[in-house]
Specification:
Helices cover 7% and strands 34% of the residues. The chain is mainly β. The strands form eight sheets. Strands 14, 15, 16, 17, 19, 21, 22 and 24 form an eight-stranded mixed sheet that branches. The longest helix is centred in the N-terminal third of the chain and has 16 residues.
Length: 619
């Protein structure tokens, strides 16, 4: 279906809808920030936009139940292959990374032109930052370089004829490849990732050209965490130092042993699936929705565990059979195909198009063997419950990138924003020519959270089973994965309550203030934190730096899929039963590094408006 044909089919859009899109863009161009819009009364949850119109019954596109709904142009499903994120290429940075802010300007060459002009980080200077903690202990063994820049991209398959529009994303400086790519890192090999900010002032309606790249759940020092207040401007770069060392190396576990291998830190704290994304406060939802997200996989062949090798360690599916997927629902302008973002919705944004690795409803040709799929809910607000269309179960091996004690066989996988789940799917019993679909069946009509009902499935990825009938597959599904860490005495307890006021979001009755530290746990201690939430909303709550271990939900043992270490816990949506109601207690530690980190809701719309706080590890 051509783009011109789509333009002629604009009969579904009413005059009120056209006015909504135009006024949305006009207000965005005026440059008002969230706090100014709140004072003006233009954002007040699901009814706020009525102030923009003469009709009191107006509903923006994300209010699906009643009123007007903006509908994206139709797409041809399963017309293009799933984009397989390539591994980034290690480079030698010029100038070389330094402990403190780099005194020399960057001296790299122009990257490939991606359709919106070539960008060069030549002459960029490093943003001011504290010195890297423990730099001499973890000198970088691998270096990577990316550039945040606009790229012309269409989420639609080429057959639909939709023109590309600028997104903002990471571009690999060495090759010009566009995210979502992946950094394949290894324990024992520290990494420096240099991120140049070459974003323009012209944001095409949303986003801001100031960024802070967060390695989601990396055990990293504060200055490399990519916290919400550590952003820097276009024309600068920052060197992020990832020591790739297990928690406890400087405190509880100077060394530990597994499979006859001795390493720094607690081997039971081993991680495997992380991701990095922008985290600039007030604009995380916009910048990530716009494309600033990619993968970071961390292998543990130093203890013969998760080795990226099907013949060693756990022998999990590896190489081309280890595929990460980031799911992000979006909405597009029916006339132009341009991606839309409702800056005035504080409840949570839902799109009517499901993208996977940057394409709407792609297909993947699979062999008759086992695959490892790393599933990531990239937000901004949707909760998924995944099924396979043929009734086949998943074998879940991790939660939030942390290996479970043992694999779980599950008919469905529920995920909220920023949660990650590794699953193994075995296609060996399928027939050549079969079409098997990864489906979402969870109903969600607004940003409040899912209703808890299952509805007619939406097919998101089509798996096409290809020959031959007999395929060599040395991978295994192990009986045992990784034991949980031991817990120790807690030095203190704290309580955090997630609520709502004046149409926006609070923790303990306070909106986020970037200048305030709300807690100061002592280095190398442990604490018990209690999360409370109600009101029928769901909040996927994320703590930076160290994973949590859930102790209880409403006084009962946590569900079986939450017994591993986690960095996101779903809170507050009554429809989720035992997985989301009321009160959750968790155990968390604060080891090895100092500095400030955030606690926030990872429904990124709630985070930006303003369900977040800063805490700081002190000596």
């Amino acid at each position: 279906m051509s783009f011109n044909i789509l333009k002629s089919r604009d009969t579904r859009r009413t005059e009120a809808e056209r006015r909504y899109v135009q006024e949305l863009r006009d207000i965005e161009k005026a440059g008002f920030n969230r706090r100014e819009l709140l004072r003006m009364g233009l954002v007040a949850g699901s009814a706020g936009l009525a102030a923009l119109y003469s009709t009191p019954n107006f509903r923006p596109y994300w209010a699906h139940a009643d009123g007007l709904t903006l509908i994206s142009p139709p797409n041809t499903p399963f017309a293009e292959p799933l984009y397989i994120p390539p591994a980034m290429t290690p480079v030698t940075l010029n100038p070389g990374p330094t402990k403190g802010p780099n005194p020399s300007p960057s001296a790299n060459t122009t990257v490939l032109d991606k359709g919106d002009g070539a960008y060069s980080p030549l002459g960029f200077t490093e943003a001011n930052r504290p010195q890297h903690q423990r730099w001499e202990e973890f000198l970088p063994a691998r270096q990577y370089e990316s550039i945040e820049m606009p790229v012309a991209h269409s989420f639609y398959p080429a057959v639909d004829g939709m023109p590309p529009y600028p997104i903002w994303t990471f571009v690999e400086a060495a090759t010009g490849r566009v995210a979502p790519f992946r950094i394949n890192a290894r324990y024992g090999e520290p990494v420096v990732h240099r991120v140049h900010n070459a974003l323009p002032m012209d944001n095409h309606g949303f986003g801001i050209n100031q960024t802070s790249t967060h390695l989601h759940n990396g055990h990293t020092a504060s200055e490399s965490d990519g916290g919400p207040t550590h952003f820097y401007d276009s024309g600068q770069f920052k060197d992020y130092h990832y020591p790739n060392v297990r928690a406890g190396f400087a405190s509880t576990h100077p060394t530990s042993t597994l499979n006859g291998r001795t390493v720094q830190g607690d081997v039971r704290e081993t991680m495997g699936f992380l991701w990095f994304h922008d985290h600039r406060f007030d604009f995380t939802s916009q910048n990530v929705y716009k494309g600033l997200a990619a993968f970071y996989t961390l292998f543990s062949d130093d203890i013969e565990l998760d080795c990226n090798d099907e013949t060693r360690g756990l022998r999990l599916p590896s190489g081309p059979y280890d595929i990460p997927m980031i799911f992000a629902d979006k909405v597009f302008d029916l006339n132009t195909g341009e991606m839309l973002f409702d800056r005035f919705n504080l409840d949570g944004i839902l799109g009517d198009k499901y993208t996977v690795n940057g394409k709407i409803q792609p297909f993947l040709e699979v062999k008759k063997r086992k695959y490892r799929f790393r599933l990531l809910d990239g937000g901004p607000s949707r909760v998924y419950e995944f099924f396979l269309s043929n009734g086949q179960p998943f074998v879940q091996i991790s939660n939030d990138g942390n290996l479970l004690p043992r694999p779980l066989t599950r008919t469905s996988i529920r995920m909220s924003v920023a949660e990650r789940v590794d699953v193994i799917v075995d296609f060996s019993k399928a027939k050549v020519g079969d079409r098997i679909y990864l489906q979402n069946r969870l109903e969600q009509t607004n940003g409040r959270g899912p209703t808890g009902k299952f509805i007619a499935p939406t097919n998101i990825v089509e798996f096409r089973v290809a020959g031959p009938d007999a395929v060599d597959d040395p991978s295994r599904i192990p009986d045992k994965l990784l034991d949980l860490p031991a817990r120790r005495a807690a030095a203190q307890t704290r309580e955090w309550s997630f609520g709502r006021s004046n149409g926006a979001w609070q923790i303990n009755g306070e909106f986020f203030d970037p200048n305030v530290i709300r807690a100061a746990p002592k280095q190398n201690t442990a604490e018990i934190w209690t999360f409370k939430s109600g009101g029928g909303w769901q909040h996927p709550v994320h703590i930076h730096f160290e994973e949590m271990q859930l102790l209880s939900r409403n006084g009962k043992a946590p569900p079986i899929d939450e017994i591993a270490r986690k960095d996101v816990v779903r809170m507050g949506q009554a429809a989720l039963g035992t997985q989301g109601v009321g009160e959750t207690k968790l155990f968390i530690q604060f080891r090895d590094f100092l500095g400030d980190y955030p606690l926030h809701c990872h429904n990124t719309v709630h985070e930006d408006h303003a369900m977040m706080l800063r805490w700081q590890i002190v000596p």
